[in-house]
Write a structure and sequence with these properties.
Elements lengths: L1 E3 L5 H6 L2 E9 L4 H9 L11 E8 L7 E7 L2 H8 L2 H19 L6 E9 L4
Antiparallel strand pairs: 1-3, 2-4, 2-5, 3-4
């Protein structure tokens, strides 16, 4: 996998207490747009208490999901992010894309499967 977006230091990874991973499958025609959304992201998550960094990974094998891995001090900080105005700000353009596809009666260009993890060891 290659990384799109910012990197996270080994120290940050070691100090995180909670990790969220979003597995995002994109239709081939939407992959470039998806990458553009992350490369020009609002950085709203960066303002959240407890956010420690993130990786966006692109698999070298075509057809595999992107991984969006975010590192948090604790689960409560992540939960606050998901319910925040910053979350909506950070996802606004992607949500708009999905709405437009739905209005046209088309299949969404991407789908996500979110998993959260406690860190057992580093």
């Amino acid at each position: 996998m290659s990384t799109v977006g910012n990197s996270v230091s080994p120290e940050t990874q070691a100090n995180a207490g909670f990790v969220a991973i979003n597995y995002i499958d994109c239709k081939p025609h939407y992959a470039e747009r998806f990458e553009c959304l992350f490369c020009t992201r609002a950085r709203a998550i960066d303002r959240m208490d407890g956010f420690m960094g993130m990786h966006v990974l692109k698999c070298h094998d075509e057809g595999q999901p992107y991984l969006v891995i975010s590192y948090w001090r604790e689960k409560a900080c992540f939960d606050a992010w998901v319910g925040s105005p910053e979350f909506l700000e950070g996802h606004k353009r992607g949500f708009e894309d999905l709405r437009e596809y739905k209005e046209r009666g088309e299949e969404p260009p991407m789908k996500s499967d979110f998993k959260t993890y406690a860190i057992l060891t580093d």
